[in-house]
Fold each of these.
Amino acid sequence: MAIKKHYRRLLILLFLFIGNSSIQLLSAQTEDWKSVDWQIGVGQTYLYDEYLSPLSHEGLGLKFSNTSLKPLKWGLPDNLEKSYDGAVWFNQLRFSLDAATCESVASTNLLYGNIAIHNSLFRKIISKPQWCTSIGAFADINGGGRYCSQNGNNPGSLDLIFNLGIAAMADYDFQFLGKSLKLRYEGNLALGGLAFSPEYAESYYEIFYLNNHHNIVKFTSLANKQDWQQQLSIDLPLANHKKSSFRISYVNEGRISLLNNIRIRNLSDYFSVGYIHYFNVL
Amino acid sequence: MKRIAILFSLLILFNACREDLNESTTPRNIFESLWTILDEKYCFFDVKNVDWDKIHDQYAPRVDSVRSSDSLFTILGEMICELRDGHVNLYSSQDIARYWKWFEDYPANYDENLIRIYLGSDYKISSGLQYKLLNDKVGYITYQDFSSSISDAGLDYIFDYFKDSPGIIIDVRNNSGGDLSNVYQFASRFTEKKIICNYIKHKTGPGHNDFSKPFAIYLEPSSHTRYTKTVVILTNRMCFSATNAFVSVMRQLPHVTIIGDRTGGGGGFPFSSMLTNGWGVRFSSCPTYDANMVLMEEGIDPDISVSLSQTSAQSGIDDIIEAARSYIKNNQ
């Protein structure tokens, strides 16, 4: 019965998340503009997973992300004819894929992968001619893990994480050498959620083959899991192209957890390059 | 400018988040690392009556005077043997430290040459099983390694092949273990009802007594052909780990009898870890129990104890197989 209760909670939260994302995507049909960016990054990843190894591993990380940002009609008059220039609510949907191969001082290898779907809702709180700031909330789902081929019965460590948290975005427009540039900072911090975790030395054989699901779904909070992402990017307009920009970003993200007495740290820094396109800009 | 400075300071706020580890490769650190891994994750300290803190104090001074990698490996190998556990090993590129007294100190009760005599050259092979109808129509199967998978189609054929036999012998002597899933797949062919066959616990924290509640492992009848005539399992001291688990499961079944020698034990489901110099370590992490919650670590006694005699072996006779054949004939 305890197993079904955990799964019910997960399913309800997943349904709400997917449902909300679907509503936002559907509402795109009535929106005036949106921006979509694609980025690919390379950088350094640091992994420490006590379940797999007492050693830390560092190595090359790769990241791909696709982000769409669009204004919402909330709070605007129904008979608004012009574009959503006055919009104060924004929805951001990001899909990202991370992969890393890391090595320890003992030359053991740890592979890492993660897929995330991240949905944020922002409200503009400060809007000035040159800069604006928004705050909001987000929900995301992460699936992935780490793999150590040198281990026997404990080669892998699975991440299945649902986060709810706060987000912030700040834009600063400035001129440089006659070009209009945009500096953007985005940050988000998970405040809580759910995460899968085996118990301290519980084998995945016991969980998935013998079906012992006791205590493997944990409620998370800042007390037992810190999960964040920060991105600082600069948009450089492409020549003669109002709707497109070249984006260079620095991304810093991390996940530190202590669940079921297992300490895990995933820290990454990436430099990304990408392309951002504004659809339906007048 | 002030705003940009604030943004950058936010970026570096979370960067000093690495685990504070000592990953040096000094002999002392390698020793401490090995000792700590076992201290936090090994599951049989109380069962084996080992004072691990005392072992630390005993071996630490020897490590401090080490001058070579070989010497360090020898000392650490001796330390892990204090646990008297066949599932505890230290691996380097040149050697594997192990504790094998659980079979080295006892008669083998197995002779591969005798098995070749019984099998002849016309035996059949299905995945990890070699099998034959002996001349008295008793079926004989030898399964040497539970890492070798067995196919359901193969087992269906084997049981059909033996359908007119009064019983079958399953010889798992010298089978030192393998994949537990093969154990339950094979055993499920011999039960007609769902039974609790084992229990397993795992560590929930680094303390020596931080364990979960026992979790029951069930054996369900296979949907494929099941065999319910007399079955005899042959065992010796080298029956270890998954084989030991197989014997513990099978002996609960009413039509199964265990003949031979006590098994070697190995009731700890092992995990792996690594030391800073690249040496690997394996250790028992999850204790397993039989259906009566008796720990399987120290081995399982047979129902009928039979040893291999030299005299018989010289005549090409395996006393344990002969005891099994006789038992099947008398218990059809």
Amino acid sequence: MAVISLAQAINQALREEMRRDDRVIVMGEDVGRRGGVFLCTEGLYEEFGPDRVIDTPLAESAIVGVALGMAIYGLRPVAEIQFADFIYGGFDQIVSNIAKIRYRSGGQFSAPLVIRAPYGGGVKGGLHHSQSPEAYFIHTAGLKVVIPSTPYDAKGLLISAIRDEDPVIFFEPKRIYRSVKGEVPEGDYTVPIGVSRLVREGSDVSLITYGAMVYECEAAAEKAEKEGISVEVLDLRSLLPFDGEAIIKTVRKTGRPIIVHEAPKICGFGAEIAAFIAEREILSLQSPIIRVAGYDTPFPLVHEHLYLPNERRILDAIKRAVSF
Amino acid sequence: MERELSFAEALNEALREEMRRDERVIIFGEDVAVAGGVYKVTKGLLEEFGPNRVIDTPISEAAIVGAAVGAALMGLRPVAEIMYMDFLTIATDQLVTHAAKLRFMSGGQLKVPLVVRTQYSLGRVHGSQHSQFYPAWFLQSPGLKVVLPATPRDAKGLLKSAIRDDDPVLFVECGLLYHRYKENVPEEEYLIPLGKADVKRRGNDVTVVAVSRVVREALEAAQRLDERGISVEVIDLMTAQPMDSETIINSVKKTNRLVIAEDSVKTGGLSAEIAARVAEEALEYLDSPIVRLNSPDMPVPFSAKLEQEYMVNADKIVDAVSKLVG
């Protein structure tokens, strides 16, 4: 099996879906001739031509608005927002129209579209190119939100997202576009939306995470293991719907959940997971529910290594949990 | 002096007093001047302060908030109105990318002392695009303050504090309450500080943290539960960012039971953050699971009956509290 990067896995998913289904259209800033600023759409323009791989103006509202129109008319658009930070330009289209069209039309219309966007820090992108805005979209009913952390999942989840009858926000952790490589089968397979992946089994503490933080959690878990603490790592993969069953299962097993993400702590996705556990599974808890997250400040440029959760901060949290 | 004002009248008075006090305070938004605001919150301000300080804008929310950012950077104290909270999605980039970040980006050289006033109209049969309550989004945008008054008296004191604050404040009003009732509002000047929750009713058995419209529902529920011998403490969050964890946690330490009630969809709402804080900082004081009462995770229904079902009300709070103590 070929070993490829996360960005290449995205590319493969798009290419295979475009070959399979001529309703699949790719559009966004620089996705055509340039092949995408992170090269996720490289070569698609050459293979599928300018009617299916469309370079758009710098107008996020237009990109997602046009995608919605296409989806209502029977196409399967995959719109790219060049950086997740720019998604606010298209926010109204996403929240007011895309998320609601199925409900507002009494099920007469749906919006089978995907909005792909690289997100997160770790690439020295500064405060306008490093943010993690997933919490905005989990708080918007009508959307699905997916974040892969491996090449295999990236391809399988993106194929599922393209085939989904409802709109999917697909955030790609850009700092691991190239640094993470893995085996990816050629040809058709899917990873279902809404199902998590158990990365590592353990019995003392549960790290619940997604995106690039999966690797920081794995590193912290290994360190903890050396100190005799057994750590489970759960990669959620889908944030909306999220895999509540798997969360409850791991909390029942360890009693010590820690949620790790890059976005600011306050009202981040970790708040939802913590609240979900505090509502459903409080009697299983052996320690407070800890969140390790970005700080409640704009994303810093020079201090991003301090802002982003890392092995050390996660390990501190693990020790706090077991010593409670 | 005793006199009673509605929510809208109290806000109007706050704006008028601040405009008289400080000529840098200007108001703009859709229909705020000649029409006095679609809900009459800015009534009479054009007549008193003239068209240079009370400005009708085009229907362009990005321009309204964007212009407010510019005006604030240049030393004014703009109060921009976004007619419905739903329309804030068009101005989100201006608010999140610019207003919230400029102080930080400039290393403190710039400040953005603006207020964006808006209202949500849940409960008025306005449909899925004119009813939404989404303050939780803006907590994910550090640099903004988020204020959610629940009573006329608080609305006035908080709005005056927001206008005097040196940082951008999102001020979310509840449209349903504008003209619904009146209460005593002091005539003499007063401010209510941002970042403080308010214990609206003392109790010992269960803490109910409520937000905006739902505070009145919680107080009604507490009254009914009191008749059954259940003592409920009602906390009005008032400011969501910065959030007053201390008042909430002190209450939970006393009651050991927490219900959070608010008007947004459940997943990722303010109630999630409140629950998460208590589960992180005061878990050992909890005698029962934390309960969140929100609207279901779906768009706001247009049918009046369905909308009523969709909303948190006193009955639902009574049920939730009864289950917890039962």
